[in-house]
Amino acid sequence: MANNQLCKLCGLLTPVTNNGVCESCTEEYAIIYNFIKNKPTATILEISTATKISLKKIN
Ligand SMILES: [Zn+2]
């Protein structure tokens, strides 16, 4: 019952969640979300440096 689709973020053909994003990107998104929650003034560059997630994905 795998629902393989292109992930909206990384573009891999992979099982995705309801919002069209794969599991690993969902995890990264959660990390970014938490970071922004703690530091709303952070720039994209700061977020990328702190989370080691590429600028492309955050954007
Ligand atoms: Zn992905």
Structural class: mainly alpha
- Portion of residues in beta strands equals 5-15%
**Distance between termini?**
31 Å
What's the number of domains?
A: 1
Record field, number of beta strands: 2
Report the order of strands and helices.
Answer: EEHHH
Number of helices: 3
Radius of gyration (Å): 13 Å
Order of strands across the widest beta sheet?
1-2
The best one-word shape is: elongated
Task: Give a structural overview.
The radius of gyration is 13 Å and the shape is elongated. The chain has one domain (4-58). The protein has 3 helices and 2 strands; from the N terminus they run ββααα. It starts with a strand and ends with a helix. It is mostly helical and 59 residues long. A two-stranded antiparallel sheet has the order 1-2. A hairpin with a 6-residue loop joins strand 1 and strand 2 (13-15). The protein binds zinc ion (ZN). Zinc ion binds next to helix 1.
Descriptors:
single chain; mainly alpha; 2 strands; binds zinc ion
Layout of SSEs?
Blueprint: E1 4-6, E2 13-15, H1 23-38, H2 44-51, H3 55-58
Antiparallel strand pairs: 1-2
The structure holds zinc ion.
In short:
The protein has 59 residues and is mostly helical. The protein has one domain. Helix content is 47%, strand content 10%.
